[in-house]
Sequence to fold (785 residues):
Amino acid sequence: MIGDVVRRVTCPVLVGRGGELAQLGAVLQRAASGQPAIMLVAGEAGVGKTRLIAELLDHAAAAGVVTLSGGCLDVGEGVLAYAPMVEALRSLAGVLEPEQLDQVLDGARGELARLVPELAVGAAGEPASSTLPPTRLFELLLGVLHRLAARGPVLLVVEDLHWADQSTRDLLGFLVRNLRGGVALVLTYRSDELHRRHPLRPFLAELDRSGRVERLELGRLDRGELVELLGGIVGGPVAPALVGEILARSEGNPFFAEELLAAHLEGARLPSVLRDLVLARVEALSEPAQRVLEAAAVAGTRVDHELLAAVVGQDAERLVWLLREAVSHHALVVDQASGAYVFRHALVQEAVYDDLLPVQRAPLHAAYARALEHRIERRGEQGRVTPAERGRLAYHWYAAHDRGRALLACVRAGQALESAWAPAEALEHYERALELYDEAPEAAAASPLDRVSLLQRAAEAANLAGWYDQAVTLARLALELVDPAVEPLRAGAVLERLARYHWLAGRSAEAIDAVERAVAVIPAEPPSPELARTLAAQGQLLMLLSHHAEALGRCEQAVAMARQVGDRAIEGHALTTLGTSLSILGQVDAGTAKLAQGMEIARELGDPDDIGRAHANLATILARVGRAAEAVDVYLAGTEIARQLGAYGRYGTNLLPDAASALLSLGRFDEADQLLAEVFELDLPSPAHRLCPLIGRGTLRLLRGDLDGAEADLKGILDEFPAPLDPQSAAPVYTGLAEAALWRGRLPEARAAAAEGLEILATADEPYWRTELCRSGLAVEAAAA
Fold:
């Protein structure tokens, strides 16, 4: 075992952090008592964040708390999505018995195995392509943490947020907003790393706005604490003059103080520049050991033995002795859990890597890329290749300046990261591949995705990341490269997606225009999945805009063509839209039958989006035709299925307030109030998801006679969503405002609200809501008479 030590350079006891450790202990106690418990620990590099966290983890484990920890890695921006959660989840198999692990993972095992193959039962194949939104992964992880917390307190630590990728920041933001009691979340970051444009800055501001996060800033040590630290290292008192010199040079930073003391004890002259101080430990090693350390630094802050051995090419026994030298001089430490070599401090790795000349770095990156390719080939046979390995490979080939191999590796990394719910990082790899496309024509010709497909995948990744305008831009670039006369199917597919991105960006007119162009460009014969999907998309847009009569024709065509080409997903989607429009136009029995067929197909395929949509639409129809009790059951059943499939946050925000509205029609006000309160506690994916809950709450307040509260909610909707509301949303808002004004005796105001609502519905096939507004208008005129 590597680990002999020639001289201790760290203090065996934690110095000067008693108060901070007590604060973190209080966080654990709050979690155990069922309260939110989230702490953000900040401090400059070397101030002792990692040492403090290690002490916390030891104390928590000794108290029987389940501890999970992971760190963000500085290995290229966007390379390793969800790295800290992968590291944390990997340890679960060692913490729990197999049966316990089954209970905690529940239905999430198969999906989480995409990120952590160790969680799979048996061999896990490389993930298939997926376009699921990242929020599904977030909800699955939240469920795992809550089930784990049901067994006892849990401590989850994520270190080095300053290196976090976008997906990790999004996931942690979701956890901060949604974690219940039982789980303590502790996050650390370097405060001195945050330049003005650092991507962590807006994330930290978001955490502050949540009101759920405490902050702990680690300061430097004072003279008394420094005396204790230095004395603990040498095992006795340290001369006051030396203490003063080290205090002056380190300014109380524990890491630099330890290095300065070590340099003094080794008889070295104390360097004038702190960077030279960090490198002094490296320069004390033999030259072969320094070369090994340089190779290790190219991998990042940690590297496993197999990869390092492949890169340095040393005799196995000789390499062990060189590593032993690096460990004994405290340049590296051994992670006992994984056997990996970790730089004693990230500052050491950064200094060693920065000291390398560019001409030294590129060959080392290439050597890591070749070693990783060999590993991927070997693991690919066993189906154990992870998205992180794909990302590392792309990073190393790019850093090695091998444009061709980098292009191919970036494409495959993008595909792997998409399947692992990391669209923001997938987008980075796709955009890098596009950047390299003209520079490496041979590799471009061998790529599994041509330029148009790359742009399409990049656009879809931007869409899944919630960057709709960027998705529109990328889809338009793809469209420019496609000749509709030569490739009509491809042009139509790009236009169909472009319509979707426009709709999500709030541009309904552009969405309709794009989908109409798509239908026009795709040949009617022979039948194709592309045309079936485009017809279904057009039908859905028409239905959403309340043009139900037009939607019927398109959806019937889509269903027929989907059956011809054997695409069950498109068939089910189109059936749900068709059933909805049929029902709204009065053909309720036929419509609900189609909705039931759509729901059956969605369940068969396990598609959380179509399952949630089918439940929502079927229940809405039931509520409109006076079957409110049945509607409530369908809404709540859909909510429960969405919860199981990890789509609760996505669909609960609509299903629950709609269930509340159905309860209101039954006079069950308290139950409706409870559901609405639950909605407002959810993590709403976007501001638009506040619309249904606000309508529900405004209606409840109106029925209870709280006119001020009702008008605050309903008028607030018009202020918050200044663009014209779609007819299905506008109708209940203006109906409620007309009723509130009528009850106050403000008849002109009530008349204006009803008229404005009817004007919005003038071109919409919405007989239910038009009837409701007419009823309110008649009540106003009766009062006026």
Summary: The radius of gyration is 30 Å.
